[in-house]
Amino acid sequence: MANANVINIKASRDETVVFLVSSIDHKLNGLSADTSFSYPSSIYRVPEQRRKANEAAYTPRLVSIGPLHRERGELQGMESYKLRCLRNFLTRSGVGLDDLVMFVADWETYVQGCYQDTSNLNSEQFLEMTLLDGIFIVELFLKNHFPQLREGSDVIFRNRWMWSDLLHDMLLLENQLPINVIKGLLNFMDHSFLIGITLLDLAHEFFKDVGNTEKLPLTEHCYCARHFVEFLLFLHSPVDPREPPSFPAMKFEYTRSATELQQAGVKFRCAEGSSLFDVVFIEGELTLPSLIVNDWTETFFRNLIASEQCGYYAKDVTSYVILMDSLINTPEDVALLVKHGIIKNALGENEAVADLFNNLYKEVVTDEFYFAQLCGDLNKYSKDPFHEFKSKWFRWRRMLRRAYFSNPWSLISLFAAVVLLILTVIQTVCSILQVK
């Protein structure tokens, strides 16, 4: 009986081994035979932990670009708009539909390889998606640059809320199409019509209200971008990247808030340059670039940070957000930076700006900090005995002002108390003298 059980167990194990070998062998045979080159993915899924911090900042509201959100029902309304864009493009360019389909078919393997997640679309569906999404972006950029191309009923350019949602969607890491494909589709246009205008010129104009895009010139690095989030990341990165600190992350300390630094004697000034990394601290004066904070700022920074965290990039934009989060703790910090032109608040309430920066850095881990030396210098300056005393005196003075000088009645009460105290002292002295 025992021998029979052993035989049954062995037979069951052999069947499992045979089945597993067959399954793995099938998967191996399914791999591409061409091993000479593999395309590195550049369009990532945002990690779930970061997505939970603010799902809306990573999710399209109006239009799906690429395969990752294509099945979302609320985005299907834009598919007919994409078809109209294709019809307009065919009419204007004079190119045949078969030429466009052949072009995207030649790029299918490359485009598939750009996405971290595999697509559930079959080849026909994937090519249709690539063509419609690519032409949609080309038409969008052209209409933005050439207003005469817009139809009178074009809702995207007539409806401010739709434009806002569209710009939000174009900033999403998960909602991208490779730039090389879009560039190739744009090349089907008559070059005399474009008059030397490149795709990145059009993109630079389209994203002008995002971050400091409008004030930043295109750099050589921008032309290496594989999609538009990477384009914005390269555009806003330092021109001369700084070497990472030689000491581990836990040894450097972030700086005090803006108001605390001011109390310690630090002066603030708006930088003349537009790079986010034009930050300098010299002889007690901290110079920072101006930044417009508007409806797209959170989406912009969150997706650039996600791109840095997912890809093999320096964590420079992440470092900038950490620095701003350190400088901004309260609405009073925002008000100070607004006063000096460092922040231009298009959100309205200073509290909204403070909340934005205080929540951007959550769930982010980095062992690189671009501003480590700067923060070290700020801390050294604000913590020396003289500036530490100055900071404390500032806080005492502000506390007294709030407690006793916030309104006329408080001032009158304090004055009356002082007079009463003086009279009491005089009376006591007189009494003592009379006794003697």
UniProtKB/TrEMBL annotation:
The keyword Membrane applies. The chain crosses the membrane at residues 409-433. InterPro entries: DUF247_pln. Keywords: Membrane, Transmembrane, Transmembrane helix. It comes from the Eukaryota. This is Uncharacterized protein. It comes from Handroanthus impetiginosus.
